[in-house]
Amino acid sequence: MTQSLRVVFAGTPEFAAAALAAIHAAGFAVPLVLTQPDRPAGRGMKLTASPVKRYAVEQGLEVAQPTSLRRNGKYPEEASAAIDLLRATPHDVMVVAAYGLILPQEVLDIAPHGSINIHASLLPRWRGAAPIHRAIEAGDAETGITLMQMDAGLDTGAMIREARTVILPNDTTGTLHDRLAQLGADLVVQALRDLEREGRLPATPQPDEGATYAAKIAKHEAALDWRRPADALARQIRAFDPFPGAFGTLDGAAVKFWAAEALEMPASQEPGAILDVSAQGVVVACGEGALRLTQLQKPGGKRLPVREFLAGFPLIRGQRFAPAPADA
């Protein structure tokens, strides 16, 4: 009987936990799981384990949480200890998904079959930290998962295989994330089975042509710039759901927006002006067209359909949302 492929797994959020669960459920040996250190979270800012750590602990898998894996970084002793642990842990391949730490070439080369990354875009489009947000924000028609042989560059390694999915008109980063997490989990299990059977995974060098960079979402981006076209703002609202949540400022209060649709209409008011208020939505003038807001949240409240929101936070035609900050 052949021995199961041994997989060291490195990942942190829910996206990665879905892949780890699928790999484990498929019967592959997972001798070690790497995940980021526990972080303060929630109102009490209590130290909280990552979704990957929670799954690993539930399943009795060994977990390591180094602060760094770079010997020349801020934590050289921790990095050296983690690399020693990796070298001492017999394994065949490393799978990495949204780990969040830089992996130097020394680490990528430890496993005989190298390190496979599960990336949530169709590379070379949207290399970087926020590929799901940026694909929705840009109005891409489709996205997907790329399995990549990792190198020291930023998502520049050779591509092993991909799976595609259409971006639906009502997709948010939350809904698309969940679909891509499952797609990535299924794809990596298929690839590991092929590797186990054939002993290799062919990979195609990644072209630089068509490469785009998905920069991490900055908090200031959440403020809507009403001078932009309504359809771009509607995409921004979907892209920033569930995090960081798009918002506008009205009389000093930050009102978050969770659902909206773009309307084609001539500009009759300054961008940010409220044109209409009804149970169907709050219509706001934009640089092109108007935005009908249908799910909103007041400071300290919860997200509500527009009818319920207006019952506790009345708005009137003629009020105007403040312009976005200069750096938005």
TrEMBL record:
It catalyses: L-methionyl-tRNA(fMet) + (6R)-10-formyltetrahydrofolate = N-formyl-L-methionyl-tRNA(fMet) + (6S)-5,6,7,8-tetrahydrofolate + H(+). GO terms for cellular component: cytosol. (6S)-5,6,7,8-tetrahydrofolate binds at S121, L122, L123, P124. The chain crosses the membrane at residues 15-35. Its EC number is 2.1.2.9. The keyword Protein biosynthesis applies. Keywords: Membrane, Protein biosynthesis, Transferase, Transmembrane, Transmembrane helix. Residues 6-192 form the Formyl transferase N-terminal domain. Gene3D superfamilies: Formyl transferase, C-terminal domain (3.10.25.10), Formyl transferase, N-terminal domain (3.40.50.170). Residues 216-313 form the Formyl transferase C-terminal domain. GO terms for molecular function: methionyl-tRNA formyltransferase activity. Belongs to the Fmt family. Attaches a formyl group to the free amino group of methionyl-tRNA(fMet). The formyl group appears to play a dual role in the initiator identity of N-formylmethionyl-tRNA by promoting its recognition by IF2 and preventing the misappropriation of this tRNA by the elongation apparatus. This is Methionyl-tRNA formyltransferase. It comes from Caballeronia telluris. The gene is fmt.
